[in-house]
Amino acid sequence: MTRQNDIKRISELRSEVSKHNDLYYQQANPKISDTEYDALLSELTQLEAKYPDQYSPDSPTQKVGSDSDDRFPSAPHTIPMASLQNSYQLEEIQLFTDRIDRELEDREYKFDVEPKIDGVAVALRFKDGKLELGLTRGDGKFGDVITENVATLNGVGNLPENWQGTVNGCSHFEVRGEAFLSLSMFRKLNKDRVRQGNAPFANPRNATAGTLKTLDSKIVKERGLSVYFYRLFNCDGSELFETHEQEIAAIETLNLPVNPFFRTTKTIDDIRSVLEQLEANRSELDYQIDGAVIKLDNLAQCAALGSTAKAPRWGIAYKYAAEEVETVLNDITLQVGRTGVITPVAELEPVQLAGSLVSRATLHNWEEIERKDIRIGDTVVVAKGGDVIPKILSALKDQRSGNESEIPQPESCPICNSRTESPEGQVAVKCVNYHCAARLSARLRHFVSRDAADIEGLGGKWIDAFIESGKLTSIQDIFKLQHNELRVLPGLGDKSATRLITGLKASAKRPWANKIFSLGIPQVGITTATILARNSINIRKLEELSQETLEDLEDIGPIVAAEIIAWFSSEDTQTMLSELLECNYLLEAELVPVTTIETFSGLTFVITGTLGKMTRGEAKALIKKHGGKVTGSVSSKTSYLVAGEKAGSKLDKARKLEVKILTEEQLLSMTKTEAVDE
Q1: 3-state secondary structure of 430
Q2: pLDDT digit string (tens) for 561-616?
Q3: Which of 134, 417, 467, 663 sees the fewest Cβ atoms within 10 Å?
Q4: pLDDT, tens digit, 9 for 90 and up, residues 285-334
Q5: Are 514 and 526 in contact (CB under 8 A)?
């Protein structure tokens, strides 16, 4: 029973971690702190190590999160852009330096310590003195091309006028850095946005990520993003310097900005001292940091140590504890989301925290309120880690006066007064009225968002105004808006009305994955929507996918599969889909999203062991390209087991079930092609 429960938990964790990857990388809207995320990932890693037969190349433990955006062309990175492993205790830094000491025995080495800015990684290539290409991190192997946008970053255009275009004899080189929004600029932008009636940015990191993915470089320039560079190498991937310290000095000679806080250390005591110094100065910085980066200075030693599947072995990120403050909980307001979930939000006595004035914090649900025994009037401890929405850690019960009041669970919706319910097995309290104005507003905001229908000109202010006036009672009503009635509205005008109608027409041409995401299916982010798009050609084919079929898709476990099935079974969903088909937003026949060669149609493969010419991910992509299906475990339904070196229990099971076994060469021969990139 323990194995069965653990395997179920593996599926749940893969789905949950993938969801949070999607929120962080794709939507720039994280819902949990880095600490909470790393705890989930650590639990998944331990369970996968316990059950090696459950290995999957698609597990989030085997690949980095991706911020790729299909609105931009992509290009390969010269060398992969990996993420450092996170640590939260000084003991983990000690373990890191001990490992370096073992693996670099009898060799001198030193470490560099730099602030870990909570921004967005970028790569810039220069050729003959001019900016040639700008990339995001993407999936680490390929990045989105954002050359015009990175050209607007503060400091990028400061190359010396008398510069001859070479660095250490190299005229074609790459610099990498972290783009960020300074706190002073962040406050200015939010002040302007509020004055203009727009919602303020949640935090500097989210604002940076969204800005770099803006299609208009003029807007990017207006927002005044900055960058600090930390890497410089030849565009053929070779190093130009012996040490990281020399690298930083060379970047400075190019007049490209580097972080002024840069320390070189030799011992663990030196590292601790620098970490303490940086943390003490944290509140004085004009940019957000969530920790420090510690890495070997000698680049040849870095190369010798290499990397794991997800992170380099020559460096580590040390995360500071979330900043905490005390303040008073004045009241509770209730927010209703698009799925009806009612979220209690704490209204706080305003207090400075992590570089911004905080007046609200999430309380998540009533189970948490009861568990922490939080009451209105309490003095509470508020934390803000990783620039996520502030949350209340605890109430200081010894400071109670007796006038505090408990926070009851609502029996009716605060917006439409409909009854509430708590679905079995869930802690959420939901408004049952699908047509609740708050739920409708949230659905519409989601529908028109960038990764969804991407309808320019229909912001939250107008959505709420149209709902209040009765113009919008459903998502479908968006497509009934007319230019003539919009152009006469106060504050809208002819130009804005034209832009809105143009956006409505353009939405019909959105990619199939974005249309799926726009529908607001619970638990389905843009990454999951992309997976669903690869396995369906239109909405009705998607609806026909069974629970079992959905569960077998990568990154979709039983919980997400059940949510999708339940969503399609709703009468309100069917009404919406029918009307969206009628107004040509959803088409009866979407374009087939992935071109496949049907060599392996109807065949199921399992991959095990270490392959020589391909990674497992590349082998999986090859099989899928030829119409086959790849699963993680061997069963009587398995057509072929592809076995590499050190194949274990799966090979034994395949032999027992008389499943056909292929070598890597036989697989390639069957496809009559070479290995492909994932």
Answers
A1: strand
A2: 988 999 999 999 999 999 899 888 987 655 444 444 567 877 888 888 878 777 77
A3: 417
A4: 899 898 999 999 999 999 989 887 678 999 999 988 777 889 999 999 99
A5: yes
Residue 187 pLDDT class (50, 70, 90 cuts): confident
Does 31 participate in catalysis according to the annotation?
no
- 225: which residues sit within 8 A by CB, 6+ positions away? 152, 153, 154, 179, 180, 181, 208, 211, 212
CATH of segment(s) 75-319: 3.30.470.30
Q: Is 354 in contact with 387 (CB distance < 8 Å)?
A: yes
Q: Which of 67-76, 155-164, 621-630 has the lowest mean pLDDT?
A: 155-164
Show the tokens assigned to 152.
């607007």
In this structure, are residues 294 and 318 in contact, taking their beta carbons and an 8 Å threshold?
yes
- For 92-111, give one letter per residue: b (16+ CB within 10 A) or e: ebeebbeebeeebeeeeebb
The ranges assigned to domains in the chain are 2-54, 75-319, 324-421, 437-582, 598-671
Q: Which CATH number fits domain 2-54: 3.30.420.140, 3.40.50.170, 1.10.260.40, 1.10.287.610?
A: 1.10.287.610
Q: Is 215 exposed, middle or buried (0-12, 13-18, 19+ CB in 10 A)?
A: middle
pLDDT (mean) for 374-387: 83
CATH of domain 437-582: 1.10.150.20
- Choosing from 116, 295, 515, 620, which is the catalytic residue? 116
Architecture per CATH, 598-671 = 3-Layer(aba) Sandwich (3.40)
Report pTM: 0.60
